Amino acid sequence: MNLRHSKQRDSIKEFLATRKDHPTADMVYRNVRQSFPNISLGTVYRNLTLLADMGDIARIQVGDGADHFDYDTSPHYHFICTKCGRVTDLDMPVTEQMIHSASENFDGEIKGQMTYFYGHCSNCIPKN
């Protein structure tokens, strides 16, 4: 795909590269607007969709009705706090065992997997 260079798209990628909290399109829009005051929410959505479709970023859906975006496209796991909705990466090795086990019990071709861990983040656990 031969795309025209876009400073707005670059700004979106640069913002995502600095984040580990998997922002929504609205969060990206609010930040990128600081550099591009005339950018529309639609432009941000279109660029996020384009970047995700090209594989430059990852789009993740965690059940809160909003797409979240991740600069890190390598295989990794996510933790979702069921109290505050925070989405974070889990620092643990990704195992191929799950894909292997699933493939043994599935009459098709599995290309990958998405695993989420749920619970309460450290900010939401009551302190004693």
Task: Describe this structure as you would to a colleague.
- The chain has helices spanning 7-17, 25-32, 41-54, 97-104, and strands at residues 58-61, 67-70, 77-81, 87-90, 116-119.
- It is α+β, with helices and mostly antiparallel strands and 128 residues long.
- The strands form 2 sheets. It has a 3-stranded mixed β-sheet with strand order 4-3-5, with no helix packed on it.
In short:
This protein is an alpha+beta fold.
Quick one: how many beta strands?
Answer: 5
Percent in strands = 15-25%
User: How would you state the average pLDDT, rounded?
Assistant: 91
Low-pLDDT parts are: none
CA distance, first residue to last residue: 55 Å
User: What share of residues is helical?
Assistant: 25-40%
Helix/strand order: HHHEEEEHE
What count of helical segments does DSSP give? Answer: 4
Please tell me how large the radius of gyration is. 17 Å
* Structural class based on helices, strands and sheet pairing: alpha+beta
User: Which strand order spans the largest sheet, edge to edge or round the barrel?
Assistant: 4-3-5
Q: Main sheet? A: 3 strands, mixed
Globular, elongated, flat, extended or rod-shaped: what is the shape? flat
